[in-house]
Amino acid sequence: MYEQKFAPERAKPIVAINTTHGTGTEVDRFAVASILEKEYKPAIAYDCIYPTFSIDDPELTKTLPEKQSIYTSLDALNHVTEASTTVLTNSLSINLARDTVELIAEYLPKVIEEPENLETRYFLMYASMIAGVSFDNGMLHLTHALEHPLSAVKPDLPHGLGLAMLLPAVVKYTYKVKPQILAYIYQPIIPGLKGISDEAEEVAAKLEQWIFELGVKEKLADVGFSEEDIPKLVKLAFETPVLDLLLNSAPMNVDKELVKTIYSESMKPYN
What we know:
Elements: E1 15-18, E2 30-32, E3 43-45, E4 53-56, H1 66-83, H2 91-113, H3 118-138, H4 142-153, H5 159-175, H6 179-186, H7 200-213, H8 230-239, H9 243-247, H10 256-265
Parallel strand pairs: 1-4
Antiparallel strand pairs: 2-3
Helix pairs in contact: 1-2, 1-3, 1-5, 2-3, 2-6, 4-5, 4-8, 5-7, 8-10
């Protein structure tokens, strides 16, 4: 199924009980698997796998480790960064994206300080949920398409950390073509943006600094990747089943040179 050899038409009823505040899969039709022997990490999206019932209980996230609390929240941030700027985006995805960023900007630092505070966990879980709705309607593009090869090659790499390392570079190139939308949704993190393409490099650097201030300071070189790995990662981004759908949803033409550039710029900090 994950290699698109067949498409399911029916599924057993699914009850989704969320234990993080990141994926949003309790409210969408997406799922991901790792095919380790091929270094593939493909995704699927079928209407028949929408959950029949979903439970979001912040009590279940109180013991989530600090790093995973941050990584999963950054996953939700990536969901809306991409969903609000795809070729399929719409006002629902964009406005849910803004709400998501506001909630993450306010409550993620509080969760780091008070991990067992149910109110802060509640709002991050809510942010993750509406981010799931946002990308269920708007789809995803570059960050997820480029992260899946990272955690396919290194299965111990947390998905949210992989996304965090790539996000500034992806935002830099996305901002050049969608500055008004990204300026709107990122105001809670980077206030005062004018929504012009010339801000792209500044936005990327400030976003990276915000991520560093959360305690996530790693870049690709810090987790064992090097420039020599980039050709393989680029190949996987274009050959892993389904990832081409994400690449084709990006708001700009995505060729191998752009993907190579994003991986390369994510090796070390901008700042």
